[in-house]
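Shipment paperwork, digital attachment
Item: protein structure file
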Amino acid sequence: MDRLIIALPKGRLLAEALPLLARVGIEPEPELADEESRRLLFRTSRPEIELVRVRSFDVATFVAFGAAQLGIAGSDVLAEFDYSEIYAPLDLGIGHCRLAVAVPEAMRAGDDPRRWSHVSVATKYPNLTRRHFARRGVQAECIKLNGALELAPALGLCGRIVDLVATGRTLRDNGLVEVERILDVSARLAVNRAALKTRSDEINRWIARFKEATDGQAT
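Attachment content:
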């Protein structure tokens, strides 16, 4: 049987995904949860299934180009890339957060989002950010950063950031405040459309397993 590769994101979402994998009957090697491990490919309790652990943004690319047949990806990542090759049939009920606009606390009183016409924004999500502001007729100049977004206003790079927010603690610790919500985010099951056609029975069985596990958790 051909291997079935499932792409998983590093970090907080991986920790939330591990119990879900257990409920669908996939037990990975313990090293998968070790953040210090440099390995990327892991065996599981099912000989036909292997897991790859990659950056959250790379999950969508691995699935879209067929390196992985399934993946667990945030809806933010899927919306940012908007790959036509990916089918995302299930909200997995994990990874809840939001994509939001934040500004320095000192700017908040005089910075009404309803009056913006042009904004300069640091973000990992230039496509989502531009689309969001374009819907309101606001021109957004996006400065692409992969991390340390909270430093951008403090160092004069730009006045605003767009980033994921869960508790808001990181924003507060860096003197920033959320002023606008762009998107509610959760993790989705990402499926390669070509694999769904060529391995239909197998892929659909796993979609059904994930749905059953997700529905069971919700109840």
